[in-house]
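Lab notebook, bench 4. The sequencing result for the construct came back, and we need a structural model before the next group meeting so we can plan mutations. Quick request posted to the team channel:

Model the 3D structure of this chain.
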Amino acid sequence: MARHKEFDRDTVLKAAITVFTEHGYEGTSTDALLSAMKISRQSMYDTFGDKRRLYLAALDRYNLDSVSQIVADLRRDMAPLKALEEMLIAFASRPETEAGHGCLGVSAVCEFGRTDREVSALTDKASRLLSSTVQTILEEGKKRGEVADDVDITDAVQFLGSTLSGMKISARNGASRETLRGIARLAIRSLR
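Done. Here's the predicted structure in token form:
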């Protein structure tokens, strides 16, 4: 008779996200995952499959949660450039312990680049959602006269995405909140 699982899938997935974020895919051992998730090897295989399937599930969950939070920050009822600035500053204002862990999405891009079709599909999906939301905010900002007429929206979307990624890497490298806030403010000023 099969045993009932004695753990919450979301809880163990969050533990795996932490380990993969800190050590990358290649740098993470199955033993480290099992220890962090507090489950047996068989439970991991039964629930997630192998380490790769667990990584893909963790990356998908991380991207969904991360991008959903950013999109929610952007959709608050405020002026477009203010919303963009607040979103970047909200990231910069996270607790240093959280920011210092890094970003699993950025780590996946750095570790795999475009060499892994499944990883690329997950990072592309997150990027499309974020880019679409930022584009909508920038277009509204242009209509309201907040964004300069000569700002190319496509370029600005890419610039803000790169700025956010760079801020995440800087945070992982120990950049202070004030440094990150300064980057956010400079990015927004460049759109006016």
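The domain at 61-189 is CATH 1.10.357.10 (Tetracycline Repressor; domain 2).
Will bring this to the meeting.
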